[in-house]
Each structure stands twice: as structure tokens, then as C-alpha cells.
UniProtKB/TrEMBL annotation:
One of its GO terms (cellular component) is extracellular region. InterPro entries: C1q_dom, Collagen, Collagen/C1q_domain, Tumour_necrosis_fac-like_dom. Residues 1-19 form the signal peptide. Pfam families: C1q, Collagen. Residues 101-240 form the C1q domain. The keyword Secreted applies. This is C1q and TNF related 5. It comes from Callorhinchus milii. Residues 34-92 are annotated as: Disordered. Keywords: Collagen, Secreted, Signal. The gene is c1qtnf5. It comes from the Eukaryota. Coiled coil: none annotated. The lineage of its organism: Eukaryota, Metazoa, Chordata, Craniata, Vertebrata. It is found in: Secreted.
Length: 245
């Protein structure tokens, strides 16, 4: 059995509750003024970790870092496959002219056959017996060599001196290039006089041997001793870079 009593106090309501629950009785309970707030309770126990949150958005790019040290050189990789043949390039400039592979020759040798008289003065001595003259640059009729290949030549005279002394010149275009002399002292046997010179020649230049003084014209020849005139090309200007310019 439960009984509820309500009593009226000025502006205050009292509620009384009485209950009889078998052998147990509850005291009367009446609502009063709110009590003073209690002291904060102790911290509760830590809860279980929550789930991972969703992945956030990408942040802004950071500033460039400092340049690192150069790393070690790597191994050489395998050779690649050959590429396609490229287009043909433009034609290059004309190269410098090289030396000619052609070898130029000019050589002769002749001797005096007439031993009955000495050569006349102030004119070419005739060496009228030719022993070598493949190019035909020497004329036994005039005693002159005419240049066909420009370059440096060597000319030499081997003369037998007998009866009188001998002086002769190697001439180039009327000018003496070299002069030689051999005294003869009335010996019973002839003596020899030899002389030669290098000469640079241009085409059409001429070289010959000449005596100037009648008293010094003792150039002699016999079947056992000769007087010869020889010349040959040492090198041609056509092989010289200066000439090719």
C-alpha cells in the first residue's frame, strides 16, 4: 500500500511519499532546495584509443634544400642499338692543294770530242758528244742547257788541262755563276780541273760553260782523257709549298 500526502507551505510544495513494500518501509522523501555543488570528482580512467583519422590534404611544397655532394660515378651501361643513318651533310670547302705525286726529271751529260783545238773565248764551249740527255734539255749544237722544269740544279765540269793553263766559268743567262782556274807548268802529262755549282733556274733559263782569256783556254780531250759537262735537277719548285701558293 502506498500513500502520497501533499502539504501546502507558503510558495513551497512538499511531497510525501510513503510506501509499504512488504516488511521494508521507505522513509518519507520530500524535495528541498538544491544543494551546494559538490567537489569535482577524480579523473576517470583513460579510454581506449580512437580510430585513425582520415588522411589530410597535401601540404604546400617546402623550400628547396641545399645541393648535395656529387655521387660516385655509376657503371657504364650497355651500348645502345645503332641509330638510323643521318642525312648527308653539306659539301665541305676545297682543301689545300697537296704535293704532286709526279716526279720530274732533267739531267744530261756530254763531253768534248774535238781535241785538235782549244775552245774559242767568250762563247759557249761545245760538249758535242752526248752521253745522257733523255729529256733533250741540253743541245750539243749550242753547248747550252735550257731549263724546262723550275727548281734547283747542280752543274759540274771535269776538264783535262794540257799545254796551257785553263780558266772557265759556269754561266747563267750570260752571267758568271762560278769561276775556276788551273795553272799548267809545261808538264809532260795533263792535269785535271773540276768545278761545280748549285743554280736555281726558271723555265727558259740557260746554262753553259765559257772561257774568257785565250791564254787560259787549255781544255783538252783525247781517247784516254775527257772533258765533260754534266747537270741535273736536284729538286723541283713544283714540289715546293711556296710555288704551290
Amino acid at each position: 500500500m502506498m500513500a502520497v500526502c501533499l502539504a501546502t507551505v507558503p510558495l513551497i510544495f512538499l511531497v510525501c511519499v510513503s510506501a509499504d513494500l512488504g516488511n521494508n518501509k521507505l522513509s518519507e522523501f520530500c524535495a528541498g532546495h538544491p544543494g551546494i555543488p559538490g567537489s569535482p570528482g577524480n579523473n576517470g580512467m583513460a579510454g581506449t584509443p580512437g580510430r585513425d583519422g582520415r588522411e589530410g590534404r597535401d601540404g604546400f611544397p617546402g623550400a628547396n634544400g641545399e645541393k648535395g655532394d656529387q655521387g660516385e660515378r655509376g657503371y657504364t651501361g650497355p651500348a645502345g642499338t645503332p641509330g638510323n643513318v643521318g642525312m648527308r651533310g653539306e659539301r665541305g670547302e676545297k682543301g689545300v692543294k697537296g704535293e704532286s705525286l709526279v716526279t720530274y726529271h732533267s739531267a744530261f751529260s756530254a763531253k768534248r770530242a774535238d781535241a785538235s783545238s782549244f775552245p774559242p773565248t767568250d762563247q759557249p764551249v761545245l760538249f758535242d758528244t752526248v752521253t745522257q740527255n733523255e729529256q733533250g734539255h741540253y743541245s750539243p749544237l749550242t753547248g747550252k742547257f735550257t731549263c724546262a722544269v723550275p727548281g734547283v740544279y747542280y752543274f759540274v765540269v771535269h776538264a783535262t788541262v794540257y799545254r796551257i793553263s785553263l780558266q772557265f766559268d759556269i754561266m747563267k743567262n750570260g752571267q758568271s755563276v762560278a769561276s775556276f782556274f788551273q795553272f799548267y807548268g809545261n808538264w809532260t802529262k795533263p792535269v785535271s780541273l773540276s768545278g761545280g755549282s748549285l743554280v736555281h733556274l726558271e723555265p727558259e733559263d740557260q746554262v753553259w760553260v765559257q772561257v774568257a782569256v785565250p791564254d787560259f783556254s787549255g781544255m783538252y780531250a783525247s781517247p784516254k782523257t775527257d772533258s765533260t759537262f754534266t747537270g741535273f735537277l736536284v729538286y723541283s719548285d713544283w714540289h715546293s709549298p711556296a710555288f704551290l701558293g
